[in-house]
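Allow me, if you will, to draw on your knowledge of protein folds for a short while. The matter concerns a single protein, recorded as an amino acid sequence and a row of backbone structure tokens. Could you please explain, in whatever detail you think fit, how the structure tokens follow from the sequence? I remain grateful for any guidance, and I place the record below:

…
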Amino acid sequence: MFTKVIEPLATLAGRKVTVMGLGLFGGGQGVTEFLCRRGARVTVTDLRSEEVLRPTLAELAHLPVEWVLGKHREEDFLSADLVIASPAVPRTAPLLQRCVAKGIPLETEMNLFFKHCRGRICGVTGSNGKTTTTHLVGAMAAQQWPGVKLGGNLGRSLLPELDAIAADDWVVLELSSFQLEDLAGLDRRPEVAVVTNLSPNHLDRHATYGDYAAAKKEILRPAAGPSTAVLNGEDPRVRSWAPGGSGMRLRRTIYFGRTARVVPAADGAWISEDGTEVFLGQRGRREHLFAAADLALPGRFNLLNAAAAAAAAWSMGVEPAKIADAVRAFRAVEHRLEPAAACDGVQYLNDSIATTPESTIAALEALGPNVIVICGGSRKGCSFRALGKVIHRRARGVVLLGQTAAEIRASIPSLPGGPEIRAADSLEEAVVQARALARSGDRVILSPACPSYDMFVNFVERGRKFKEIARSLTPSKGAGAVSPGAS
């Protein structure tokens, strides 16, 4: 669907380019800035209103852009020389299909970056853990190469920085299934490709789990030049994507995981059987990388993320001592079990980036059972059966909101010893309800297990709103003051 042609960037000058979908998460902003700098005549069109898009519009106010907001006009597409589609726009959208029929080339922000980036790319994908893993890889790489750049699905486009990336530079990208699906027609793939895990996700967009898996698998397609796959050694489906399985032909494959769960083990970064360290295994030799206690992030799942990042960084050429230094210095990523506030002896944690049941399960397994969890949001076709069982076992209370509230409630077993369940119509009310359920020493976690589109623009807006509400809480009589936590 998207053009395979790689044209010199100078050819953008004077061309009429339509950007479909501005959004508030960086990609639309980055590609718009990039196109204007190259001399293109840019029209940006988005179904959302000027009021909703105000933060992004303010960042781009200095650019000569024609804005078409609250609607799409057919003429902006059919008269364009090039159309750039946001990952959020369904590829079945009638206007995109009309462009294909008329022969108007289609591009994406990420495809443009892959076509023109001179540097080496480490790409990270997976259903869960990819944001933390991407940040960890970036922190490890920065110990060796201070100028390493981090971007992709994190909300930061690197297109405006394209000219500053040299051939021997490393770039670390988080890549979503949408972005990878669009790369299918290109020959280039990341020099280092990390797959954290796989579980059903985005089934509102991908027709089946098989389609979703196929999109993720695109990160491993054969490409010119040396390349390395970094695969979850204890995820059977992901492990099957190694060379010799499923037609994958990569120069090298290394793994990460817990040694007790994988037979046989292989080269890569492994968590020791007692869970106290991460070590490098290579040709039967074992080299200590860092202690589990060196990682400030809670939960076994984060130690697995750190092992994935260590395997990737090692394959990029980062020295083991520098990998360990990065782990010791690393702190929570915003919106991933991020400390927000404390009031009346209760901690409030922002886990808004948990948009899948598996992410919320991991948080509850790490922090329960003295937990009040705020759950629910918009639908994307995921099952909540496993989440309901974990909520019953690992949460003392749960506050449900959003489109999926009834589904999540129905998934929680009606058995003795389960959590108290409440409902809320807004995030503000949810925090009030959670506070009423919490006791001193508890944790209140916003870990929705769902996207935010029924109430918020994205998980970032949701998470920041939660922090604002939590930090506004005032202590009860005789209780201690609010602690603002980390921002």
